[in-house]
Amino acid sequence: MRIKICGITTPRDAVIAESLGADAIGVVVCSKSQRNVTLKRAREIFSALKPTTEKILVTDSESYPELELMMAQKPDAVQITHPFEFSERPPVRIIRTLKPGMEELPADCDAFVIDGSMGRGVFFDRNFASGIINRTEKPVFLAGGLSPDNIGEAVRMINPYGVDVSSGVEKSPGIKDREKMSEFIRICREA
């Protein structure tokens, strides 16, 4: 199972998450999120990581010029919430965020993140998550209210391709807690 630690705001937290076994680091840019960082800061965070750690820019931007700027940074993927349409294959992988109530699965992406929480710690909708996983062959990441306290049960219930955590492993918004990250990753690997 793939593990993404999202909402990283410092190179230090990124390196700690990587050293604990995170497969991917998510950095929020061009967003109203309290975890938002500049593209310059995102580059600093990503440059501190090993080449094998997946680097994902995450945004809720509705601006195509901003999306193009993000893709120009050459991350491994860009995770989007806005239903952008692409006339040709983007230069990076696209991960689409799905929220409960969304019935149509976009075809023009490489993976999905089920997340109605958007970093607020609201627990995911089990029926919606199971339904999406059963309807697609694409990788599906589970997000929303995950923490060391519930990740084991969530993984056993849903059996996602991967998990994506932000607020559930924080001391405060954007500042990660080493012990919570360690416990979260350990439980994921055991589940």
Automatic annotation (TrEMBL):
Enzyme type, top EC level: isomerase
GO molecular function: phosphoribosylanthranilate isomerase activity
PANTHER family: N-(5'-PHOSPHORIBOSYL)ANTHRANILATE ISOMERASE
Protein family according to the UniProt entry: Belongs to the TrpF family.
Annotated protein name in UniProt: N-(5'-phosphoribosyl)anthranilate isomerase
EC number: 5.3.1.24
Statement: the UniProt record of this protein carries the keyword Coiled coil: no
